Amino acid sequence: MSILSFPILRSPPSRLDKALSRDAPAQADLSRTRLARLITEGHVEIDGIIVKNPTATVSEGQSVKVLLPALEPVETLPQKIKIDIIYEDEDLLVINKVAGMVVHPAPGSPKDTLVNALLYHCQNSLSGIGGEKRPGIVHRIDKDTSGLLVVAKNDKSHHGLARQFEQHSVERVYHAFCHGVPDVASPRLKGVKGVSFEVGSVVKVSTHLARHKHDRQRQAVIFEGGKHAVTRLKVLEKFGNPQAISLIECWLETGRTHQIRAHMAHLGHSLIGDATYGRRKKISNKALNEDGFNSVNKFNRQALHASLLGFIHPLTGKYLRFSVDMPLDMQNLATGLKK
Asked: What sign does the CA torsion over 295, 329, 326, 162 have?
């Protein structure tokens, strides 16, 4: 356990947790949420008296002492697993996740996850998330989806990034291959509830999403209850005769579980290889030549890639923007379709 001592500065905020968040030394790397928890747990003294109320008032010049318990080790074991790190500094990392890797350990996937790999890679550079020595997973992408995600190394970075995701201000672009052609020229799309069209041949899907009543592995599109979800998409390329497959670009306004996959299925254009949302979709061997037909049938995951990620660095204020190409399996799918 370590002790952090500092004074309350001039014109303090009305609440103790806000005052401590403002006046605690920056190198202590304590978020307001963490400080509020330390207060309620009896780890904060004001002028030698323990105060457990985060909303208590304080005055300029009072002496603060914060007792910082040692970081609790997490049960998840570090594993030496190769990961593609696009960017790293003392506060965060940006990872290009491979398809097939689970982000966070769960009862069915206790090891070989991204968190296992990050615990090994970061080691002593983690300053703790919520009092635990672990990486801060701000958002996730599905096991069989590839691409970019950002991970926090400390509390302040974690809360700053989480706030941007909550405010839907993070820039996220995905590329995917889907059945059919979901473009603005489709008369069928005009009759699908929740669909509208925007300038630049953009299709907007605005619904709510909630756990499916009968299949817990799926999200259901609904229009009352659940969580609001908005996806925009545009067709980049069409394949087949008649046009059987499209390469699309999707922008996320919100980031719900399975959002793109569920929305594309709602449109009737589920993703290639998506066994959960597109199990009934088949490609006619007359629509594609042998190369294209075989490329589609051999593709064994949802053809979805998180290709671009942009956000404000929570500590420096600098806007960071990263992009990565589609992985080899999706590039090979594109090559087969073009043949």
From this structure: positive
**How far does Cα 117 stand from its chain's mean position?**
17
Residue 103: φ, ψ to 5°: -75, -50
Catalytic choice (17, 29, 91, 142)? 142
Output 110 or 102, whichever has higher pLDDT: 102
51: its two tokens: 């105060």
For the question of residue 142 being annotated catalytic, the response is: yes
State pLDDT tens for residues 139-149. Answer: 889 999 999 99
Farthest-apart Cα atoms in the chain, separation: 81
Residue corresponding to tokens 């993070």: 170
- The DSSP letter of residue 120 is H
Tell me the three-class secondary structure of the chain, residue by residue. CEEEEEECCCCCCCCHHHHHHHHCCHHHCCCHHHHHHHHHCCCEEECCEECCCCCCCCCCCCEEEEEECCCEECCCCCCCCCCEEEEECCCEEEEEECCCCCCCCECCECCCCHHHHHHHHHHHHCCEECCEECCEECCCCCCCCEEEEEEECEHHHHHHHHHHHHCCCCEEEEEEEEECCCCCCCCCHHHCCCEEEECCCEEEEEEEEEECCCCCCCEEEECCCCEEEEEEEEEEEEECCCCCEEEEEEEECCCCCCHHHHHHHHHCCCECCCCCCCCCCCCCCCCCCHHHHHHHHHCCCCCEEEEEEEEECCCCCCEEEEECCCCHHHHHHHHHHHC
pLDDT of 132 strictly over 70: no
127: pLDDT confidence band, cut at 50, 70 and 90?
Answer: low
Range scoring the smallest mean pLDDT among 156-165, 171-180, 202-211, 282-291: 282-291
Q: Answer positive or negative: Cα dihedral of 64, 69, 74, 77.
A: positive
Mean pLDDT, rounded, of the chain: 89
Helix (H, G, I), strand (E, B), or coil: what is residue 330?
A: helix
Residue 286 confidence (pLDDT): 80
